[in-house]
Amino acid sequence: HVPAGAVPRRDPAFDRGRPVDGANPATAWDGYHAIDELPYLYQPRAGWLRGGGSPFAATAVPGGPDATAYPAYMDVAGDRASAAWARQVLGADTVWTAPMLAAAVFRGRVRMDDALLAALVDEWERAGVVDHLRVEALDEPLATLRAWDGTLHEGSVAATHWILLGEALRAGLGARADYPHLAALEAVLAELRAGWGTAAVPWGEVNRLRPPAPATAAAPPDYPAPGAPAWTDAAFVFEAVRPPGEQRRVGHAGHSWVGITAFGPAGVEAHTVLPFGQSAYPSSPHASDQAPLYAEQGFKPRPFSRAAVRAAAVESYAPGARGADGTGDAGETRSRNDT
User: Fold this and answer.
1) pLDDT of amino acid 9
2) In Å, what is the CA distance from 194 to each residue of 169, 171, 203, 290?
3) CA–CA distance from 99 to each of 105, 269, 290 (Å)?
């Protein structure tokens, strides 16, 4: 497993996380690193590995490469909470099977910012000295956040509060208040109460997936989405916005697919899910057929060998034999498992 790909050789004296002076010849690339110069794993002792935004997050398993032994520019992303969660879950002394791994993938966590939570608690305690009634209204929501371990699931009220709070703070809400973190949380809770009649709204009610629907559909499909925005470091990235006049958020971007692959004596066993569908044509049967699977936190089998693909195919045709009318793109191969 070589996650870094083609990496240019560069002068490590420069901070590649910032713009460099292109007029300085020393900042120019000097060819590419050879494969044996990249972080890689061959037959990992741990028995598993995880893809990620950082080559060292992907290979951070027992026996994996040491990031300090490589140029810093090979790892500008750094470690992530999602990678740390994967190491914690997958690092257990367990012989993993594909079904076990599929179930574990959805038990992801978001990144818990200890400094933010500490600041929130500090402001809550200080405000309580001068305004007891104000902080009393925040006792329950704050206790929920303090007890939460960051596990993301559709029934989590804490996930709703934490993610909306993070977005409010990132947007500068409450920045000029005496207690900025407290003010942002109050604004989030007030908006939830105004829109939903309660602040205890589960994440699955707020975060929704609405795939394309045929024009004849009475209403578009609408499913709870288990993912979260990229800044949370969730295992499933799911970016959503609120349509005008709605309280729910509807996904428009994120991980287009997530897959697990098991290598064993009998061959390769692969499973995937495409939350946003395989086809952008609403009339296609594959525009939204995987959305409920994603909402139910499941995977579909993915044929891996030529024989398996042919066995699963429902139609084969030559490129250009069909038009882009929603029933199939030129050169498309359709199968029962949407491969």
Assistant:
1) 94
2) 20, 20, 17, 33
3) 10, 10, 18
Please give the span between the terminal C-alpha atoms of the chain, in angstroms, as a whole number. 23
Q: Find which of 31-40, 160-169, 235-244, 319-328 is predicted with most confidence, using mean pLDDT.
A: 160-169
Q: Put the strands of the sheet holding 258-264 in their side by side order.
A: 258-264, 267-273, 300-302
Q: Which two tokens stand for residue 93?
A: 């002394």
Which of 204, 199, 203, 206 minimizes the C-alpha distance to 139?
199
- pTM, 2 dp: 0.76
Give residue 257's region: left, alpha or beta (phi > 0; psi -120 to 50): beta
Q: Say if residues 55 and 76 touch (Cβ distance below 8 Å).
A: no
Measured distance CA(52)–CA(86) in Å, rounded: 10
SS (H, E, C) 116-151: HHHHHHHHHHHHHHHCHHHHHCCHHHHHHHHHCCCE
Q: For the chain, give the mean pLDDT.
A: 83
CA distance 145 to 159: 8
pLDDT digits (tens, 9 = 90+) for 60-73: 566 677 778 888 88
